[in-house]
Each structure stands twice: as C-alpha cells, then as structure tokens.
Specification:
39 residues, mainly alpha, globular
C-alpha cells in the first residue's frame, strides 16, 4: 500500500488495518504514526 492511499483513509480504517497487521499498541498511535507503522 502506498502512502497516498493511507492518507486518504479515516483514522478508524487505519486502526482496523493496523490491527489486521498486528501493529503493537495501534489504538494509542496518532494517525501519522499509524501510517508509518503500517508501511
């Protein structure tokens, strides 16, 4: 997934995606931090 695609997602969508990828503490991250954790 590209950065532009992540920027267009809502914080809720990013959180769901991050949880699917098993990003640690995803619910406590800011949107920007979550995007880079996903990348």
């Amino acid at each position: 997934m590209h950065l532009q695609e992540l920027k267009q997602k809502t914080p809720a969508d990013l959180l769901a995606y991050a949880e699917d990828l098993e990003v640690e503490n995803a619910s406590t991250l800011r949107k920007q931090d979550m995007m880079f954790a996903i990348l």
